[in-house]
Every structure is written in structure tokens, then in C-alpha cells.
Specification:
71 residues; mainly alpha; 4 helices; 58% helix; 0% strand; elongated
Length: 71
């Protein structure tokens, strides 16, 4: 979520070509057609990240808020 479909598609291509390494994603990308990669990239790009409503104990809430402002 929160990545563009172009970025996600090129990531899948990189996994397929072993330009980007992952023991999980490499074999998965290797069996996908280009159309399936496009479809997956479009789907995941359409997802919105969940809104965080609470933080784990000990989290630096001020740092999280600064990060939100930067993003």
C-alpha cells in the first residue's frame, strides 16, 4: 500500500529477473505473466495504509508525529 503501480510493477520485474533478491518473491514473480504483474501492481497500489490509532508501549509518539508531518 502507498506505492505507485509503476513502482510495484518494476519491483516484480526486478524479482523475476533476479535484479532484486528475495527467497519468497523471486519464485512467485518468476511464474507471473506480465498482465498478472500489472494486475497485482494496480491492486496493491489501490490499497490505502491502515490508520494507526494507538502506539505500542514505549513508542516515541513525538517521533511518530514528526514522521507523519514529513510524509
Amino acid at each position: 500500500a502507498a506505492q505507485s503501480s509503476v513502482y510495484l510493477y518494476h519491483s516484480l520485474l526486478a524479482y523475476e529477473r533476479s535484479d532484486r533478491h528475495s527467497g519468497v518473491m523471486g519464485p512467485v514473480a518468476a511464474v507471473l505473466s506480465k498482465d498478472e504483474m500489472i494486475e497485482l501492481a494496480n491492486y496493491y497500489a489501490s490499497l490505502r495504509p491502515p490508520k494507526i490509532t494507538s502506539f505500542p508501549a514505549g513508542a516515541d509518539v513525538e517521533a511518530v508525529e514528526r514522521g507523519r508531518q514529513i510524509a
